[in-house]
Write a structure and sequence with these properties.
- Strand 12 and strand 13 form a beta hairpin.
- By secondary structure, this protein is of the alpha/beta class.
- Helix 4 (about 100-110) crosses helix 10 and helix 7 packs across helix 9 (about 225-235).
- It has 2 domains: about 1-105 and about 255-270, Nucleotidyltransferase, domain 5 (2-Layer Sandwich), CATH 3.30.420; about 115-250, Nucleotidyltransferase, domain 5 (2-Layer Sandwich).
- The chain has a 5-stranded mixed beta sheet with strand order 3-2-1-4-8, sandwiched between helices. A 5-stranded mixed beta sheet has the order 11-10-9-14-15, with helices on both faces.
- It contains 10 helices and 15 strands.
């Protein structure tokens, strides 16, 4: 069995998959604010729901900057230098552990859901913050495996700002006083499309992905601004640079957990 763990800023989802992709176990719990409490709760959850001899691999998704199984920085958790390898050392008879950024994993899953699958894709999650993952030939692209697109510094409103400081779900609520689900104004959605486009017109010339996929809570409302966004990006890019299609994530709520499964399966079958 493959264990997939999606650690979110508020909730953690743990799932057990067979190699054929069928899910046998699903457990959710509130993500503790303290990393030590999280470790205790996660270890207890794994030990209570899985037998030692049935687990082939564990894949842990974390919303942060990761190096050598350590999350050095988090976007939406007050954790720092969280050593996941040490935290889960010896769990379930020492099952192999993979630790990966959640946006990379979501991008992996969403890319594999596309038919035909693009040679390269840029997945961008627009929710509380902005995260991104690049997939090449159906695998996480290691050359840009630590991309933090939401922290790209851009000019907006006459000053330099991080992309997510003016285009994330948090920024949208702060600016308009409404959650995305409640926004019906065409003018407001045009402005939101403009804000989101600013990051893409910087990233596209550098990465040149075949497809862009938008997920996260703002991705849920893609139908309200997607056409406007594509138009703005196309207008603002140099004419000689192709503007890739921008599509909505197919399964934004569980993309990370399926990305964990695919990533683990790839490592098991190499």
């Amino acid at each position: 069995m493959i264990i997939a763990i999606d650690t979110g800023g508020t909730k953690t989802l743990v799932a057990g998959f067979n190699r054929d992709g069928s899910r046998e176990v699903t457990v959710r719990f509130e993500t503790p604010a303290d990393s030590d409490e999280y470790t205790k709760l996660l270890r207890a959850t794994l030990e209570e729901n899985f037998s030692n001899d049935s687990v082939e691999m564990i894949c842990l998704a974390l919303p942060g900057l990761i190096k050598d199984k350590t999350a050095m920085w988090f976007g939406n958790l007050a954790w720092k230098n969280f050593d996941a390898g040490k935290a889960l050392e010896g769990i379930l008879s020492g099952a192999p552990l993979l630790v990966e950024n959640d946006a990379n994993l979501a991008g992996l899953a969403e890319t594999r859901m596309l038919d035909p699958m693009p040679g390269s894709s840029l997945y961008v999650t627009v929710s509380t913050g902005i995260g991104a993952g690049l997939t090449t030939n159906g695998h996480i692209d290691r050359t840009l495996g630590r991309i933090e697109a939401g922290h790209a510094v851009l000019e907006f409103g006459g000053q330099l700002q991080k992309w997510e400081s003016f285009a994330s779900g948090k920024a949208i609520y702060s600016t308009y006083g409404q959650f995305a689900r409640d926004i019906t104004s065409e003018e407001t959605w045009q402005e939101i499309a403009d804000r989101i486009s600013r990051g893409f017109i910087v990233l596209i010339p550098i990465i040149q992905p075949d497809t862009i996929i938008i997920g996260g809570s703002i991705g849920t409302y893609f139908s309200r601004y997607g056409e406007k966004l594509e138009q703005l990006v196309k207008e603002r890019l140099p004419s000689y640079l192709p503007s890739p299609p921008i599509v909505q994530a197919k399964n934004p709520e569980e993309a990370v957990i399926y990305g964990c499964f695919y990533h683990a399966l790839d490592n098991l079958t190499r």
